[in-house]
Prior knowledge:
Elements lengths: L2 H8 L11 H11 L6 E5 L5 H9 L4 E6 L2 H14 L5 E5 L11 E7 L8 H9 L2 E14 L5 H7 L5 H10 L2 E8 L2 H21 L6 H19 L3 E10 L3
Parallel strand pairs: 1-2, 1-4, 2-3, 4-5
Antiparallel strand pairs: 5-7, 6-7
Helix pairs in contact: 1-8, 8-9
Amino acid sequence: MNREQISRLAHADHPIAAPLDDDAVRQLLERGIPRGDARVLDLGCGGGEWLLRALATYPQLRAEGVDTSESALAHARRTARVLGLQERLVLHHEDAADFAAPHAFDLVVSVGATHAFGGLLATLAAARKHLAPGGRVLIGDGIWTHEPSPEAVEMLGDLADLPTTMDRVISDGWTPVDGHISTRRELDDYEWAWTGSLASWALDHPDDPDSSQALAAATTHRGEWLRVYRDVFGFVCLILRPMSD
């Protein structure tokens, strides 16, 4: 069982692969989409959940997603067909950092995918290339809420606290126009869903050769969450506009 398979099972009950509840996702999309016929791009779209929710809410919206996971894109296509949204959704199987489109987008989304670009500012640089005049970026990334241990830094990367993150974004030429800081409940709900969905699958499939590995992955992840980063990790989503188009 590879990392992609583990992630798919772990997100079965929490399809937004970030610590956000449904109300937060809805509000961020409402504030990020400038008009009903907008064109939206998700860089690192996974199963396409952000795009599917946007398409379901705005009947004239058009959406595109980019991801390296063929299985995640296949899931997005199946879900789009079930919901009757497939005609307005285009999916690209390639590295989001290399993606090029013949048109610009009114909203570029990249939530929980900054690792694919090499960090927050690198992700914003990639997003900027796709923005139409007056366009916005919806980006989500981890932050430190308290001083992390060396183990937490090694596990989650070189994050910053919220004020430092905001300073870096503004210095890079962006103006925050809205945002959302994940609550303790959102953070914990996400971790319970991640570990619980994976563990439940393992218990429901005891004869599957991957069952023991899935259960071990859930157990390890739960221990890391509770003992290493629960008290120091946070998550912020920002809606940004470039200071000059």
